[in-house]
Design a protein that fits this description.
two-stranded antiparallel sheet, mainly alpha, Farnesyl Diphosphate Synthase
């Protein structure tokens, strides 16, 4: 199957899974549930669910298990976007081509949306069958919690907020994005692996390394897009990092060197999964999509 067709199939699966697992809009408290569905549905590239399913092809994972694991990591990602857009953070008004959650509803509701989406993610991993046994499901819950917390995504966001107006070294910038962006990318990879047949320790280490490098590649590509694309193309406010004086790969390296960095990371990402052979075809294709995307 052509990659774009396969990707579209996974995006549709992810949308349907989220629609099924999110509370219905008519259930009390209605406004909160309406806002949760507004933030989560009908938007986004679903890169993390796609990544989870692509890894599932390596370990022959059951698609139903992958659907739940992918939904859990995507809910964490969406909650982070809702909170990131708040006036106390980036104060943005556009996300995925529509008004941000706090603009469409209100700031207090948006705060609760993020809280509720995060809780739902862990509820899914605890209640739904995602692993072969309880020990594996506990490992999945622990992985997502670590990736979301102070040593993962939330910690990276804290570093990002503290870095406004500062010039970071390349090592400092990478440390920030290994947590802020890369932690959930890595979680999507490993959650996909946990859904299937057990892999060897070297295989898991190889996927772990792949996830870390891919997370950096995603951020470099995102920084380049933010500096060159329009708001209409991105579906979010273009150039906001530069306007807020945030350190990025483009501000540190310039566009030309940032593109070279992306090429280096792309090559390293492909190399890390080469031993998996044809089973990693979708991961190779997704790596190229992330590097070359224009939206």
């Amino acid at each position: 199957m052509d990659f774009s067709v396969w990707m579209g199939t996974i995006q549709e699966r992810s949308e349907n899974t989220l629609d099924r697992l999110l509370p219905a809009a008519h259930i009390a408290p209605q406004r909160l549930h309406q806002a949760m569905r507004y933030a989560a549905l009908r938007g986004g590239k679903r890169v993390r669910p796609i990544l989870c399913h692509a890894v599932g092809e390596i370990c022959a994972a059951d698609p139903g298990r992958l659907d739940v694991a992918a939904a859990a990591v995507e809910l964490i990602h969406i909650y982070s976007l809702v909170h990131d857009d708040l006036p106390s953070m980036d104060n943005d008004v556009l996300r995925r081509g529509k008004p941000t959650c706090h603009v469409e509803f209100d700031e207090a509701t948006a705060l609760l949306v993020g809280d509720a989406l995060q809780s739902l993610a862990f509820q899914l991993l605890a209640e739904q069958e995602t692993g072969e046994n309880a020990a594996r499901q506990l490992a999945m819950i622990s992985l997502l919690a670590h990736s979301s917390g102070s040593r993962g995504m939330a910690g990276g966001q804290a570093i990002d907020l503290a870095a406004v107006g500062q010039t970071l070294s390349l090592e400092e910038l990478e440390l920030m994005h290994i947590r802020k962006t890369g932690a959930l990318i890595r979680a999507a990879v490993l959650l996909g692996a946990y859904c299937g047949k057990p892999l060897t320790a070297p295989e898991m280490a190889r996927l772990d390394h792949f996830g870390k490098v891919l997370g950096l590649l995603f951020q470099v590509a995102d920084d380049i897009l933010d500096s060159e694309s329009t708001t209409a193309t991105l579906g979010k406010t273009a150039g906001k990092d530069a306007a807020q004086n945030k350190p990025t790969y483009v501000s540190l390296l310039g566009v030309v060197r940032a593109r070279e960095k992306a090429a280096e990371l792309r090559a390293a990402t492909h190399e890390s999964i080469a031993p998996f052979g044809e089973a990693a075809l979708r991961l190779h294709q997704l790596t190229d999509f992330i590097c070359d995307r224009s939206f």
